Each structure stands twice: as C-alpha cells, then as structure tokens.
Amino acid sequence: MKTNVCMCSEQTERGREQTHREMMQTVQEMKKRLPSEKRSRSKASTVEALNYALKCVKQVQANSEYYNLLMSSGLEERREATVCTLEDLEGITSEHTLKNTDTFVVVFSLASGKVVYASEQASSVLHCKRKFLESAKFVELLYHQDVNVFYSHTAQLQLPPWNVGTDSAAVLFECAQVKSFFCRIRGGKDRDGEMRYSPFRITPYLLKVQGLSGEEEPCCLALAERIISGYEAPRIPMDKRIFSTTHSPGCVFLEVDDRAVPLLGYLPQDLIGTSVLTCLHPDDRLLMLAMHRKILKYAGQPPFEHSPIRFRCQNGDYITLDSSWSSFINPWSRKVAFIIGRHKVRTGPLNEDVFAARSKAEQPIMCEDIKELQAMIYKLFLQVRTSFISKLLAGQFFKSDSKGIYNLHSQLQGKKSISHNSDFISHKCKFIS
C-alpha cells in the first residue's frame, strides 16, 4: 500500500516538474517575441512578457467578437454571392495556381473562420500538411500583429463577390489588386526552431460553399501570393524601384505605397503610425529638419528634390533613396496637413532578402534624440501661414477654364476637407469674376 502511495506521489511530482519546465519554456518564448519598444530595459522581464501576451489574446478575442458581429449583420444583405461545391473550387483555382508556384487559394467560413478548402499548392507553399490546413482556423495561421488588418478587409459587407464567369482566375487575380491587403502567414520553422512567417498579398472574395448536406455556407475565397524581395531574382528593374509615402507634420507615417513592400521588407501596417525618423540612418536624421523647413517655405508648391537619405529596411540593412517632397495645405486652417514623399531606390541593401529576420540588437528604438528632433519638426508647422489668405484672395489657388468656371488648384482637388465649404468657394468665384 505504501509502495503505491510513493509511486503516485513520484508521478505527481514528475508531472509538476514537467508542467513547470513547459511553462518556463513558454515564458522564454514569449520574452523572445516581446517587441523592443515594450521593454523597460534591454532584457525583457517575465511580467512584461505575460502582460504583452495577455494583451494580444484579448485583442484577438475582441477582434473575433467584432468580426462575428459584422458577419451576422451581413448575412441577410449579401445574397448575390456565387454558390460553389468543393469540386467547383478545385477546377476554378487549379488553372491559376499551377501557373504560379508562389500562390495558393484558401476558402474559409465567415461564420466559424475554419478552412473548408485549400488548394493543393497551399501545403507546399506553407510547408505543412493539407489535412492540417483544412482543420485549422485561417486567422490562427497569421502573424498576430496582422490580425487587425485581416479582419478589417474580410468583413462580409465589403467583400466583392466571386465571379465564376470570369475567363480565367489569373485575369481575375491581376485585376483585383486594389482590393488586396498584406499579411504574414506561418510556414514551417527556421534553423533555430523559430516559427517562420512569410509575407503574402491576399485578395478576398465572397462566395457560398455547398456542403455534402446541401446547405450553403457564406465563405471567403482568398487568393494568396507570396511577396519576394525586389532585389532577388526576378529582380525589380532599377527604373521601377519607386514608391511613395505620406507623413504628418509630426513625422508619423500616414500612408505607404504597396510598391514599397518588396523594396523595404515592411508591410504597410508595420510603418503606418510609426515615426519616419526611426527608419533613417542616424547621420541623416538632421536632413529631415532641413527638408521640413523647405517644405514650410515652399508649402503648396510643386515637388522639390532634396539630399539623398539612407532608409533602413526590415532586415536591418540600409538603402539609399533619391526623394522629392511636396505638401498639401488645408485651405481652412492654412497649415500643412501632410507631406508627400516620392522615392526612388539609388542603391540596394547588402543583404538582398529584405524580409530576412533582423537581429535583436538591430531592433529600432525610439530614443530621446529622435523624440527631440521630432518635436522640433512638429513645432515648425504650428505657425500659421498668414500669407495663404492673401494668396487665396489674389486668385493664386484658383484657375479658370474656357467656360469661366473657377476651380481650386490641382493640389486641392478631390480633397474631402474642402467639400463642406463649397459655399465659401462659390462666394470666392463670384468675387474673382
């Protein structure tokens, strides 16, 4: 009897030790994934790692609940979706995926999020078994920082319907890039056993899948194309290595051109909302102060070129950019609303794979020098451009066509910020005429 009790206590103790080891391994894994800006010191603490993990879990749960709410509200409004069987999907997608080795098709339920179909090529592209894909939730395959982007682009109410009548899936894929977005999808592990994520351009469509029971389920068909570095074969030609950005007077990215992804290694969501200065070479940051002074001096004027700048790619290497800059002035506040940068790559990175993992020592940090410089630039734009009103009254921001109809200068056309002030514009047009 005593022997049995001892054996049970030993097994219990071994179980506790095993659980403790697994828990510590998990904590160490979370510490590795803690972003540098979330750390209070160079080495992440257990509390910081656990708090960050809990925040990520809550974010995913909140997004999932919001997503399900959107799905349920749109069920009755989207009846035009094409109905397909699994056999239909196999035939529709095979033509495109066979010709493009870096693409695959996945269909997941908009109600449960589970994958109901994955093309044959998906398992080879993602380095996993097809059975695993067809039993998983698609969102679980995504990098956690891309979940927000995924949910915002796959709400049922804004998904375009899949058109089976299109001549070929390839043509449909090429014509739908404007609806696409970027996400990182996991695909195997690296040499150190770390989970590896690859960037994909995803184009979503709405359709209904008819199951074996005959019931129709609303689903999202996602065409996924892996993004390859623009400096690796097949390389993007030198004259095509261009992209554009916009940032606020406070040097925060507002928009990033899709063309920047294979050239910089960042997805748009990686840069939007972050400081421009953190991506620049430390020796080039002061150039931005001079550039913004020139922006303020020539606000609203045609683009001007400035000194080349070195921009850090996602892998930690720098590229040299030749840039031209311009700005848009809010006509009612008379201040610069945002700055537009048009960039061309002069020299590429040493490591041509811009999507390669960056070492932990190279992670960008928002240091005090950057904060001070950013504050200096922002203060430049707090001043009101009093000369703007005089230019406006002098007619410099208006031009007339052959019929005598006055319009705002091209820099103001198409901006929502002036739509509600049409009465003022009409009054100004009468004043000029």
UniProtKB/TrEMBL annotation:
Subcellular location: Cytoplasm; Nucleus
InterPro entries registered for this protein in UniProt: PAS (IPR000014), PAS-like_dom_sf (IPR035965), PAS_fold_3 (IPR013655), PER1-3_bHLH (IPR057310), Per1-3_PAS-A (IPR048814), Period_circadian_regulator (IPR050760)
Main localization of the protein described in the UniProt heading: cytoplasm
GO MF annotations in UniProt: transcription cis-regulatory region binding; transcription corepressor binding
Record-level GO BP terms: circadian regulation of gene expression; entrainment of circadian clock by photoperiod; negative regulation of transcription by RNA polymerase II
Organism field: Cyprinus carpio
Any Pfam family hit: bHLH_PER
PROSITE patterns in alphabetical order: PAS
Entry annotated with the keyword Cytoplasm: yes
Domain PAS: from-to ranges: 253-299
Alphabetical UniProt keywords: Biological rhythms, Cytoplasm, Nucleus, Repeat, Transcription, Transcription regulation
Entry protein name: Period circadian clock 3
SMART domains: PAS
CDD domains: PAS (cd00130)
Keyword Nucleus: yes
GO cellular component: cytoplasm; nucleus
